[in-house]
Amino acid sequence: MELRQLRYFVAIVDHGSLSRAARVLHIVQPALTQQLQLLEQELDVQLLHRSAQGMLATDAGKIFYEHAQAILKQVGDAKSAVTQSALRPTGTVALGIPQSVSGALALPLLMAVREKYPEISLQLTEELSGNLIEQLKSGRINLAVLFDDGQLSSFAVKPMIEEQMMYITRAKSQFAHKGKSIRLEQATQAPLILPGFQHGVRPRIEGLMRSAGLSINDVIDINSVAILKSALLADMGATILPVAPLMAEIERGDMVALPISDHVISRTVVLCASKNIPLTNAAHAVEKLVLEVAQTLCASEKWLGTSSLM
Asked: What is the CATH number of the domain that holds 252?
């Protein structure tokens, strides 16, 4: 198996066509077809099949595609590690950010990287935490912002911030509370719009409710941040979440966030890297910058409801 075969296969999947992949790769189509056949013969499995939509990966092909991407990325990182300068880091760095954090961190970080390290290409991936963990383990991303649930021992972990969860409603909502804070029991009186249990936020909220002898009587399960926002703006209920995913609406005055006075609901946000795959100089530079940007956002209160752990 050759690296060029991996590159060829990834290009075919990405472009959905042998002819388009051949043009991008600057090789003739028969040669591309031959290399694909050799790869399938070596693996003794069909990786692609033709359809009305073009060339699509089979189930085996989808699995192989993820591994091929990870291998090609690590090869590229290895080349960068031995050629780049520590003073002028260059190359591509892939950083994973959960959906519930990207609203606060993604844009300030992109701007900081472009200003301080213009020769670094930062690739941001917004995913659920579980997906980011798998991508970090396989080497498909260099770094990931995750939530410390005590299950991250396989990674090199750097604490960033403690993020408080708040009671959030539409401005002038029927479920709004008039005070400057709200008790947890009062918060449970409204229909609560919450992420599903595959999100780390939900089990933490449910666990605190049980320990306080409370229960949620009316829950609307929504896993999409965009749809959750729409439901809040339609005044279908309230939510208990960190502020980050709803920060734009809160800053505009479309939503209101209140701290919960009698219980602390928070999560620890950390920056993780693989213990087994070395970081390039560029990745080290981005790692340091992520921590700096997070600390600045926390100190300036632009990332509401947070306290620094650095």
From this structure: 3.40.190.10
